[in-house]
Amino acid sequence: MARIGVLYGMEESFPPALVDRINALGVEGVRAEHLKVGGVRMAVPSGYDVIIDRISHDIPFYRSYLKNAALNGTKVINNPFWWSADDKFFNYALATKLGVAVPPTVLLPHKKHPEGTTDRSMRNLEFPLDWQGIFDYVGFPAFLKPHDGGGWKSVYKVNSPDELFAAYDESGDLCMTLQGAVKFQEYFRCYVIDRQHVHVMRYDPGAPHHLRYVPGNPPASPDLQRRMVGDALTLCGALGYDLNTVEFAVEDGVPYAIDFMNPAPDAGLESVGQDNFNWVVDAVAKMAVARALAPPETPELHWARFLAGGGQ
Ligand SMILES: Nc1ncnc2c1ncn2[C@@H]1O[C@H](COP(=O)(O)OP(=O)(O)O)[C@@H](O)[C@H]1O
Ligand SMILES: [Mg+2]
After folding, report:
1. How many angstroms separate the Cα of 134 from the Cα of each of 88, 93, 105?
2. In this predicted model, what pLDDT tens digit does every residue of 24-37 receive, in sequence order?
């Protein structure tokens, strides 16, 4: 029997719906369940063929557990090693190299020294920064936002250097990026599953939370739709995420990718709405089953070659 475990935190609707949907598919030899874990023994298989991870970004214990599970043959969605290594600024740079439109973005040093460090820890830092050069490159308005974050936490829209400096002061010891604002007429959020299935959702970031996924999901123009689907697949293929959302802000017909590191994307029924919820539950259920039935994977990791006897 191939076992699929779902690992989650506070979310209410998606995990049980996923377990139920997988089991309702009735695929012989495959079962899904709510994962259980206690003290984790090193180098011992987890007992699950596939794990869908919705929470390890908040619980380091789970991240470490998942790495050990992957080492012992579990297919973990999403890859816990890459998720640990990844950050949004790297992703903007990668996207640019892949030909996906991204607004000009600069990585800034922490405003406050990270805990346990002092100015002596940062003697390599240019001071003062060339703020004028940064402003000329990024332009105003701009968004100051964490290089690794989510849920709109510590995201500031700034219209001038003064507003930027005030927001930067508030950002404390977070590592921030400054990104040119897209003056968008349309905005979309795309689920990308298994690096092959894309569901484009019209989104209104200015609306109250429960109305952000625009009811009825009016479609994009065919050209825009094609480009967003292509860019979303390019990004998730390169990043190796099997479950992700890619957000596009569209200015004058150009979709700018501004948020595409969401390896545990919002999938709550109350926020995404019934139709989007059905789509994502179904797509993830089918992916999980396909993975459970697939032959063992050799993760693209350096140590994997050593374990296979391939040396360097
Ligand atoms: N470059 C940008 N141009 C226009 N709007 C932006 C930009 N960056 C962020 N935003 C706005 O801020 C919101 C949150 O930023 P985002 O990058 O999506 O971070 P999070 O991961 O916290 O969702 C976006 O949904 C969008 O409304
Ligand atoms: Mg976002």
Report:
1. 18, 16, 9
2. 999 999 999 999 99
Q: Are residues 118 and 147 in the same domain?
A: yes
Q: How far is CA 295 from the centre of its chain?
A: 26
Ligand 1, atom 27, lies closest to the CA of 205
Rounded Cα distance between 161 and 258, Å, is 22
Judge whether 200 lies within some domain: yes
Minimum CA distance residue for ligand 1 atom 6: 181
Ligand closest in space to the Cα of 258:
1
Is residue 21 in a domain?
A: yes
On whether residue 312 sits in a domain, the answer given is no
CATH number of the domain bearing residue 298:
3.40.50.20
Residues 97 and 202 placed together within one structural domain of the fold: yes
Same domain assignment for residues 186 and 175: no
pLDDT 10s digits, 178-231: 999 999 999 999 999 999 999 999 999 999 988 899 999 999 999 999 999 999
Counting from 1 in the atom list of ligand 1, the atom nearest the Cα of 184 is 4
Domain span at 42: 1-85+266-306
**Which of ligand 1's atoms lies nearest the C-alpha of 103?**
1
Query: Cβ of 150: how many Cβ atoms within 10 Å?
Result: 16
Within the chain, how many helices (H) and strands (E) appear?
Answer: 10, 12
Question: Coil, helix or strand for 209?
Answer: helix
Structure tokens at 57: 């970004």
Per-residue pLDDT tens digits for 263-281: 999 999 999 999 999 999 9
Quote the number of domains for the chain.
Answer: 3
Q: Ligand 1 pocket, 146 CB below 6 A? A: no
pLDDT digits (tens, 9 = 90+) for 148-171: 988 889 999 999 999 999 999 999
State whether 28 and 71 are in the same domain: yes
pLDDT confidence of residue 312: 53
Q: Is the CB of 177 under 6 A from ligand 1?
A: no
Q: What is the number of the ligand 1 atom nearest to the C-alpha of 180?
A: 1
Minimal-distance CA residue to ligand 1 atom 7:
181
310, two tokens: 């391939």
Tell whether ligand 1 has an atom less than 6 A from the beta carbon of residue 247.
yes
